[in-house]
Design a protein that fits this description.
Blueprint (H helix, E strand, L loop, with lengths): L7 H15 L6 H8 L6 H19 L8 H6 L6 H18 L2 H22 L13
Helix pairs in contact: 1-3, 1-5, 5-6
The structure holds protoporphyrin IX containing FE.
Length: 136
């Protein structure tokens, strides 16, 4: 049954189910496997889950705990494209809508869209791309 309860328990379920699907995706999965490995039970993945649990708890409830800088992380994981972001968003949309009531799922999704858009702007991807060559 779909829930409107947003707490650590429902977020833990969401995060684990989302990454289990994401890692199998041939477009997005390799970015995670490269950094965290392909064994979703290893220490790096467990740490990642814990980080994302506290990240989504902060985003959705304001509960303090997450203290990282997600933008910096994504600047150094390889060449992200609009297609990679679109796939990430599509899988996230499916996950939150399968688990939460529509109003709550939309709240999760609209937050992820805003953040993805900010990442793309910062990384100069897609509509934010510039022609300038920054290498000199
Ligand atoms: C293009 C799609 C994306 C890819 C391929 C991607 C990939 C990754 C990878 C590989 C890590 C682990 C980095 C590490 O531990 O060193 C990571 C961390 C993270 N990602 Fe993403 N990501 C994507 C989009 C997003 C979006 C849209 C959000 C937010 C809605 C997000 C939120 C985070 C957060 C909060 C972390 C943890 C950062 C920290 O360590 O503090 N990611 N991502």
């Amino acid at each position: 049954m779909k829930t409107s309860e947003v707490d650590l328990e429902s977020i833990e379920i969401m995060v684990r189910a989302f990454y289990a699907t994401l890692v199998k995706d041939d477009l997005v999965g390799p970015f995670f496997i490269k950094v965290l490995g392909d064994d979703l039970g290893n220490g790096k993945w467990r740490e990642h889950y814990g980080t994302l649990d506290s990240f989504w708890l902060l985003m959705m409830t304001g509960e303090k705990g997450y203290m990282g800088d997600p933008y910096m992380v994504h600047a150094f994981i390889g060449t992200l494209t609009v297609e990679v972001f679109d796939r990430w968003l599509e899988i996230f949309h499916k996950q939150v809508h399968s688990q939460f009531t529509p109003e709550i799922a939309d709240k999760f999704y609209s937050k992820s869209q805003t953040i993805a858009s900010r990442f793309m702007e910062g990384l100069e991807i897609g509509e934010f791309a510039t022609d300038e060559d920054d290498d000199y």
